[in-house]
Amino acid sequence: MSETIRVLITDDHAIVRKGMGALLATEPDIAVVGEASNGEEAVKAAGALQPDVILMDLAMPVMDGIEAIRLITSQQSDARILVITSFATDEKVFPAIQAGALGYLLKDSDPEDLVNAIHQVHRGEPSLHPEIARKLLLELSRPSEQPPTPDPLTEREVEVLRLLARGLSNREIAEELVISDATVRTHVSRILNKLHLASRTQAALYALREGLASLDG
Fold it and tell me: Which residues contact 115 (CB under 8 A, 6 or more apart)?
């Protein structure tokens, strides 16, 4: 029997939340465990419910989606967040991905695209609308603005970075390398500090840019 994916829906429009909830209710392996109408509610619900996947709108009152993503990922480094929004502009796309979102889907996507994206994000795989994927690939093709770090990554840190870029959680990395969760957290912290990065998603983008990982895993 397949694992049930526990989902939190965040959107300031009740009709959108109910519509997504009704759609997901038809999926035998997906369960909606909560709803939030703004980013502040999403942060609280994410902490209380510990959902497997968080669906996040961007334009909301009280606290927008990007700030909510930053707060959630700062509290739960393994949080798997799928942005669902009407915005495909660079000023929305890159901040959301840099804040820690693993997927980005536009609201005009087909219902089956939403279901597929939830499964991908749950597996720790990036899920990007084709228009967003093109923007991301263009961004990755640009030269890095960060100077080379004077303190290079160790061989073990490179191993951790490669696994992180594949979407593995700290626990999964620990199992893969036969080390403790605490050791993985230390390695991830050192990687972010050395590379002057703010999130696991930025680290994954760095690994892609530097050829340490690929979009094909």
Answer: 23, 24, 27, 30
- The neighbouring-strand residues paired with 81 are 54
Q: Residue 1: what pLDDT?
A: 45
CATH number at residue 191: 1.10.10.10
Give me the phi and psi of 81, to 5 degrees please: -115, 130
What gap in Å lies between CA 34 and CA 115, rounded to an integer? 17
One domain, residues 160 and 136: no
Predicted confidence band of residue 204 (pLDDT cuts 50, 70, 90)? confident
Closest CA to 140 of 101, 99, 98, 173: 98
Q: Are residues 202 and 134 in the same domain?
A: no
Per-residue pLDDT at 217: 45
User: Do 123 and 64 fall into the same domain?
Assistant: yes
pLDDT given at position 41: 97
Same domain? For 66 and 108 the reply is yes
pLDDT digits (tens, 9 = 90+) for 140-196: 555 555 565 678 899 999 999 988 877 677 888 899 999 999 999 999 999 988 888
**Which positions ≥6 away from 69 have C-beta within 8 Å?**
56, 81, 83, 96, 99, 100, 101
Is the residue at 113 inside a domain? yes
Q: Are residues 131 and 168 in the same domain?
A: no
| Site of tokens 């909560």 | 34
DSSP string covering 79-126: --EEEEES---HHHHHHHHHHT-SEEEETTS-HHHHHHHHHHHHTT--
Domain membership of residue 145 (yes or no) is no
Whether the Cβ atoms of residue 39 and residue 53 lie closer than 8 Å to each other = no
